[in-house]
Amino acid sequence: MTRTILITGAAGFIGAFLSRRLLETTDDVVVGLDNLNSYYDVSLKHERLRMISDAANGPDRFHFIEGDIAHSDTVAAAFEEHKPSIVVNLAAQAGVRYSIDNPQAYVESNLIGFFNVLEACRQHPVEHLVYASSSSVYGSNSKVPFSTSDPTDGPVSLYAATKKSNELMAHSYSSLFSIPSTGLRFFTVYGPMGRPDMAYFKFTEKIVRREPIEIYNMGDMRRDFTYIDDIVTGITAVIDGPPTQTEGVVPHRVYNIGNSQPESLLHFVETLERVLIEEGVVDSPTEHLLLPMQPGDVYQTYADVSDLERNFDFKPSTHMEEGLRQFAAWFAKRRSDAERAS
Question: Which of 98, 106, 138, 159 is catalytic?
Answer without folding.
Answer: 159
